[in-house]
Amino acid sequence: MSPSVFIQIVPVRKSMKKTLLIDMYGVIIEESKGNFIPYAYEKIHQSRYDEITRKLREEHLFSRAQLGEISSEEFLTQLGFDRPREAAEDYLRNYLTLDKEFVPFARKAASKYEMVLLSNDVWEWSEYITEMHGLNVFFAEKFVSGKIHMRKPSAEIFEHCLGVLGRSGKECIFIDNSVKNLESAQEFGITPVLFNRDGEEYDKTVVNNYKELGKILGI
Prior knowledge:
By secondary structure, the chain is α/β, with parallel strands linked by helices.
């Protein structure tokens, strides 16, 4: 009998560039927590406010949508929107703001970094945003909670991302507007950078805009 042979399967590296993991809300989109909950209260009749609050707080309906347990259409229908697709489009088009500095930054960053989206979001919404603003050309991969059924700041989402990308933490930089998310990423050796939309206290690298981010990344 011939001796057994151990074969190690190594993930294929897409690029020898460092990987830039980048959040959507509060980084690419100016609204750090989105505007959906205020939007829902604005659009649905006041008589249903208590019901909306219960579904969001007790039934965790938004969290379930962000984890991909229910679709965008199911989520909006359960909240009381009669035309869920139209409501989603209205919200994404008219209540969220793309940071005007992101696209010029991304064009320059793409020559030096492998850019990867890492976002807590309803999957259909994330797809709509990236398509509407022409952002897909910048991302080598997209990790969205509603698609992969994991959310930041859980350790499992960072472990998953690194495994799929075939990267070590030391090969990655993470741009996020949440200190909790950055602290979780740092446990994997990922370099954290706070995009400071909300005035959070942080004792590591902090930037306030894309000009400052480009400077520290050498772009």
